[in-house]
Design goal:
The complex is a heterodimer. By secondary structure, chain A is mainly alpha-helical. Chain A contains 13 helices and four strands. In chain A, a hairpin with a 2-residue loop joins β1 and β2. The two termini of chain A are about 30 Å apart. Chain B has two domains: about 210 residues, Periplasmic binding protein-like II (D-Maltodextrin-Binding Protein, domain 2); about 220 residues, D-Maltodextrin-Binding Protein, domain 2, CATH 3.40.190.10. The chains are: A mainly alpha, B alpha/beta.
C-alpha cells in the first residue's frame, strides 16, 4: 500500500471539500502501482494460458458437477430435461443404505490399503537405502508392479487367487491350512483380495518416494546421534521418522484420494460383487450414473465423496503440523 | 450487444486498467457460462433436409465392427447410391459406449443413423426426442410395415415407431453333437426345462466339467417380455413364484453339475467368454443366440473338432405355449437432428433389405429373412466350413421357427437397475451366501425401490 505523501493528499482532500474540482480532474489517476516492477496484470497475462486450461478442465467440471448435484437429469434429455430439485438428492442420499454401505467399504478399503502400502513402502525404502549388492536391481524389481498395466495385473491376480487352482491357496493348502479363503468369489474375502493387490501394486512406488526423502536426510544428524550413543531404533524415531513426516503427509493424502477413487480394477475384477461386497463409493456412483442414468444423484454422491476426502486431507494436514523435523 | 461492445472499446480507448476483481469475476462468469452451455445446444426444431433420397452425407454409428459386415454393407450401399457418402463409426456397446452415443446425439455431433441395442436404450433415446418418428415412413414401406400393423412385435414409444429391428434374435441351445452322440443321448425339439436338466446331468457324467453353461428361465418364458413388472410397471413382479422356482432350479442344477458352479464362473470370469468353455468341450450345451456362431466358425481362434447341432429353447412345462426370451433387436434409428433424413431412410431400407445378408458374419439375421432364409445369408453366418461345423438343418428348423414367439418388452422403468440387482442376488444364492427366502424378499424390495425412484 503506497502511503500518501505528507502535505499532498491531505491538503488535496481539504481542497476537495472546500472547492470541488472540475469534472475532468476526477479522472486523474494515481501513479500505477507496481508489483515486482511490473503492472499487476502482467504476471496474470503470463499465467493466463494455464489459467484458461485450469478453468476449462477443472473449474468448469467442478462447478458443473456441483450444480448437477441439485438437479434431476438423465443427460439424454439435454438442458431442457434438467429439473432443479434443490437438496432432494442429498436428502435421499442420507436415507440410502447403499450409500452408507459403500462409504464404509471405501473407508475400509482405503483405510487398510493406504497404511499397509505405506508401511511396506517405508520398510522397502529403509532396506534399499543401505549399500548392498544388487540394490539397483532390487529397486527396479520392487518398482515394476507400478508400471504394469492394471488390467493385465488384475488378470494375473485372478489366476493367483483362484480358490481352487490358484498358487496362493495351493500353497496355503500345502502348509496344512483348512477353510481356505475364496478371494474374489467370497463376500468376506473379495475386499481383502483387492487390498492385497493394491499393496502389491503401490508399495514399490511409495518406496521410491521414501528413498528420495531418505537420501535427502542430513547425515550429520545421524553422525551426531551415533556419537551420542543412539541405537538404530532411537535414530529412526528421533531423526528418520520426524524427517519423513512431510512426505508421509503428502503420501497419506494423495494415496487416500487415489484409493477412495479406485474404480478400474473393481469394475474389471468384481463389478462390485460378489453381492455388493466390493461396491465402493466410486463404483456405486458409476452404477447410479451409467447404469441408471441418474446423473443428478451420481453428482450428489461425488460431492459427498469430495467433501469426505477434503475433510480427511485437512485433518491429516492439521495433525502433522509441527510434528515433523522440518515443519 | 453493440452497446456492450462499444463500452468495451471505450474502456480500452481510455487505457483504463482492469481490476483484479473484474478479471476474476469475468473468469468465474466464463466458467459458469461454459458449465451451463457445456452440454451442447438444445433442439431447435427439425433441421432442413440438405439432401434427398439419393443424395447426402451420412454418419452411421453402430456397435458392430466394420470388418464384421457393416463395412461391406456400406461399400455396397455407396456403389448403389453413389451420391450418398456414408461414414460408419463403430462404438463399443458397453455402458461407456452407450453414454458416449447418448451425449453425442444430445450434444449435436453429426450422427444421422444409429443403432440402439435393447429396449431401454430405444425408449430412452426416443423419449428424449433424439430419434425421428418412423411410423409413417414404415407404414409406406413393404418390409417395415409389419412393425406398425397389428399387435406390436417390436418396441414402440407412446404407440409410435422410432426404431426398426434389424435382427431376429431368438435364444436357442447350441449342443455339442459329438458329445450327445457318444453318450447315446437323443434330444427332442419339444423338450422341457426338466429334460434339459436331466440331459445336462447325464452329459456331466461323461467327464465334462458341467453338462451346460446356463439354465433355461421360467419366468420370462411363461410371462413374456414384461415379466419383471406388474400393475403396468408401477410395481415389480419379482415375488412371482416362478422367480423362486428359478432360484431353486439354479441350486438343484448346480448341485448335480448340470450347470457351472457360480464360484467357478466368478473365479475365472467365465461369463466374459463362456464360448471358450463350450468350444473346448468343458460343457456340452450353451443357451445363446446367433451371435455365438462367429466363435464356432472361427477354427483359428477356437480350434475344435465336434459338430454343433441346435435345439429350441426348452419349454417351462410340457405342451405349454411359451415365449422365446430372445428379441427382435439391434434397432436402427434416424437422428432427429439429421440433415439428411431422406438419405438416412434410404440407408435404413437398404440395411433391412439387400444389405442384410452382408452383416450375417457378425451373427445378424434380418427379421425379413426369417420366412425365406437365403443361402447367401446362411453362408455368411456360418462360414466356409459350415457343413463340417454345423448341423444346418437343425439350425434352420430352430432359428426360423414360427413358435415359440419372440417376446416384446414395452415397460422399461428402472429396467437396467432391476436386471443388475437381480443378477447379483441370483449369484449370491448360487454362491450359497443368501438363502432363497431372503433373496426373493430382497429382490422384490430393491426392485420396488428402484421403480419408485425412477418414477
Amino acid at each position: 500500500m503506497v502511503k500518501d505523501a505528507p502535505g499532498e493528499a491531505g491538503a488535496d482532500r481539504t481542497a476537495v471539500r472546500t472547492a470541488p474540482r472540475p469534472r475532468r480532474d476526477q479522472h486523474r489517476r494515481e501513479p500505477k502501482k507496481l508489483v515486482n516492477g511490473m503492472r499487476w496484470w502482467v504476471p496474470w497475462a503470463f499465467v493466463s494460458p494455464t489459467l484458461v486450461f485450469v478453468i476449462l478442465l477443472l473449474v468448469v467440471p467442478l462447478v458443473s458437477g456441483l450444480l448437477i448435484a441439485f438437479t434431476k437429469w438423465n443427460v439424454v434429455s439435454g438442458l431442457r430435461g434438467i429439473r432443479w430439485i434443490g437438496l432432494d438428492n442429498f436428502a435421499e442420499l442420507l436415507g440410502d443404505a447403499k450409500f452408507w454401505e459403500s462409504t464404509l467399504r471405501t473407508v475400509l478399503y482405503a483405510g487398510t490399503s493406504v497404511p499397509l502400502t505405506m508401511a511396506l513402502g517405508l520398510v522397502l525404502a529403509l532396506a534399499l537405502n543401505r549399500p548392498q549388492p544388487g540394490r539397483t536391481a532390487l529397486r527396479v524389481m520392487f518398482f515394476l508392479p507400478s508400471l504394469v498395466n492394471a488390467i493385465a495385473a488384475g488378470s494375473v491376480w485372478l489366476l493367483l487367487l483362484n480358490p481352487d487352482s490358484g498358487v496362493l491357496n495351493q500353497t496355503l493348502q500345502a502348509l496344512g491350512m483348512q477353510n481356505l479363503p475364496g478371494w474374489f468369489t467370497s463376500q468376506q474375502w473379495a475386499l481383502p483380495a483387492l487390498v492385497l493387490m493394491s499393496i502389491w501394486g503401490g508399495a514399490g512406488y511409495l518406496s521410491v518416494i521414501y528413498l528420495a526423502a531418505l537420501q535427502d536426510m542430513p547425515q550429520e544428524l545421524y553422525e551426531s546421534a551415533m556419537i551420542d550413543g543412539a541405537g538404530p531404533l532411537r535414530r529412526f524415531t528421533t531423526i528418520t521418522w520426524p524427517g519423513l513426516v512431510p512426505v508421509t503427509t503428502f503420501l497419506v493424502i494423495t494415496q487416500f484420494i487415489g484409493k477412495s477413487q479406485g474404480f478400474g480394477l473393481i469394475a474389471y475384477l468384481t463389478s462390485g460383487g460378489p453381492g455388493e461386497s466390493t461396491t465402493v463409493l466410486s463404483y456405486y456412483m458409476y452404477e447410479v450414473g451409467f447404469q441408471q442414468y441418474r446423473f443428478g444423484y451420481a453428482a450428489a454422491l461425488g460431492v459427498m465423496s469430495l467433501i469426505g476426502v477434503f475433510v480427511l486431507s485437512l485433518a491429516v494436514w492439521k495433525l502433522q503440523k509441527n510434528r515433523g523435523l522440518y515443519t | 450487444m453493440q452497446d456492450v461492445q462499444q463500452r468495451g472499446l471505450t474502456l480500452f480507448a481510455r487505457n483504463q486498467s482492469f481490476s483484479r476483481r473484474l478479471l476474476l469475476g469475468g473468469a468465474a462468469g466464463l466458467a459458469a457460462t461454459a458449465a451451463l452451455t457445456g452440454c451442447g445446444p438444445d433442439d431447435a426444431g427439425a433441421p432442413v433436409d440438405l439432401g434427398s433420397e439419393e443424395e447426402g452425407n451420412l454418419v452411421v454409428w453402430g456397435g458392430v465392427a466394420a470388418e464384421r459386415g457393416p463395412g461391406a454393407l456400406v461399400e455396397a450401399f455407396m456403389k448403389k447410391y453413389p451420391k450418398i457418402k456414408v461414414d460408419y463409426v463403430s462404438f463399443v456397446n458397453n455402458e461407456q459406449g452407450i453414454l458416449k452415443l447418448d451425449t453425442s446425439l444430445q450434444g449435436g455431433v453429426p450422427i444421422d443413423v444409429f443403432f440402439s441395442y435393447g429396449t431401454a436404450d430405444v425408449v430412452r433415446r426416443s423419449q428424449a426426442g433424439l430419434a425421428l418418428d418412423l411410423t409413417d415412413l414404415a407404414a409406406q414401406d413393404e418390409r417395415a410395415k409389419i412393425f406398425v400393423e397389428g399387435d406390436p412385435i417390436s418396441t414402440k414409444v407412446n404407440d409410435r415407431l422410432y426404431s426398426i429391428p434389424t435382427t431376429h434374435y431368438p435364444e436357442f441351445v447350441l449342443v455339442n453333437e459329438d458329445a450327445i452322440t457318444k453318450a447315446g443321448i437323443n434330444i427332442p425339439d419339444d423338450w422341457t426345462v426338466d429334460d434339459y436338466h436331466a440331459i445336462a446331468k447325464e452329459l456331466a457324467g461323461t467327464g465334462m466339467v458341467a453338462g451346460a453353461y446356463n439354465m433355461p428361465r421360467l419366468a420370462s418364458t411363461t410371462l413374456g417380455g414384461n415379466y419383471i413388472y406388474k400393475e403396468g410397471g408401477k410395481e415389480s413382479n419379482l415375488d412371482h413364484p416362478l422367480f423362486r422356482a428359478e432360484l431353486e432350479n439354479f441350486l438343484a442344477m448346480q448341485d448335480d453339475k448340470a450347470i457351472f458352479a457360480q464360484k467357478k464362473i466368478t473365479a475365472e470370469k467365465i461369463d466374459s467368454y463362456p464360448q471358450n468353455y463350450f468350444l473346448n468341450s468343458s460343457y456340452g450345451m450353451f443357451l445363446n443366440g446367433t451371435s455365438s456362431l462367429r466363435f464356432v466358425r472361427d477354427l483359428k481362434n477356437y480350434p475344435h473338432t465336434f459338430r454343433t447341432t441346435f435345439r429350441p429353447y426348452p419349454a417351462p412345462t410340457k405342451g405349454a405355449t411359451y415365449w422365446n426370451p430372445g428379441v427382435r433387436g439391434d434397432d436402427i434409428q434416424i437422428s432427429a437432428k439429421s440433415q439428411y433424413a431422406k438419405a438416412a431412410w434410404t440407408f435404413v431400407q437398404f440395411w433391412l433389405g439387400e444389405g442384410a445378408p452382408l452383416v450375417a458374419p457378425a451373427g445378424k439375421v434380418s427379421p425379413f429373412e426369417v420366412d425365406n432364409p437365403s443361402e447367401a445369408m446362411i453362408a455368411n453366418l456360418m462360414g466356409e466350413d459350415r457343413e463340417q461345423l454345423f448341423d444346418i438343418d437343425s439350425f434352420k428348423r430352430v432359428v426360423f421357427a414360427k413358435e415359440p414367439k419372440l417376446s416384446v418388452r414395452s415397460i422399461t422403468t428402472a429396467y437396467n437397475e432391476i436386471a443388475s440387482l437381480k443378477s447379483k442376488i441370483e449369484a449370491q444364492v448360487r454362491m450359497g451366501t443368501m438363502p432363497i427366502d431372503t433373496a426373493v424378499a430382497e429382490m422384490k424390495k430393491q426392485a420396488d425401490e428402484a421403480i419408485a425412484k425412477a418414477q
